[in-house]
């Protein structure tokens, strides 16, 4: 004669199934966390960390120079020609005393902070009286980081600012 099962015989299986669901979800989360983002936001972070003190010295030297540097980015042409924008970049360099600085090698870098692969680097040409200009073609309008890097005979200077391209 077969014996009837006791009521609640399946309760232990509920606990086992619940723990199996937790283990499966944790496994999925662990896999996703380890395969999607490396945790590194900069390229060559170790080398940049080693150069940190040198960067601080360069920033202090740049501050001691006291150069008056201004840069602006102006759209060229109509603003409704799609996503791409042609821009004019102007920069002026003056000493502490307000005298123009000529003879610099100047380069403008436009960095897209939200999307890799669209950065632009263009040389700037001297226009006299410490003024330098260039034109660049950008893939998108919107927010960009502008860096103007100038290298002279003895000194160098870097200006960084966030800009909005309409």
Task: Provide a descriptive summary of the structure in words.
- The protein is an alpha+beta fold and 166 residues long.
- 28% of the residues lie in helices and 38% in strands.
- The protein has helices at 11-36, 45-50, 52-65, and strands at residues 68-76, 85-94, 105-111, 120-128, 131-138, 142-151, 156-165.
- It has a 7-stranded antiparallel β-sheet, with no helix packed on it.
- Strand 4 and strand 5 form a beta hairpin.
- The longest helix is centred in the N-terminal third of the chain and has 26 residues, at 11-36.
- It is elongated.
- The model has no long low-confidence stretch (mean pLDDT 89).
Sequence-ordered SSE layout with sheet pairings:
Blueprint: H1 11-36, H2 45-50, H3 52-65, E1 68-76, E2 85-94, E3 105-111, E4 120-128, E5 131-138, E6 142-151, E7 156-165
Antiparallel strand pairs: 1-2, 2-5, 3-4, 3-6, 4-5, 6-7
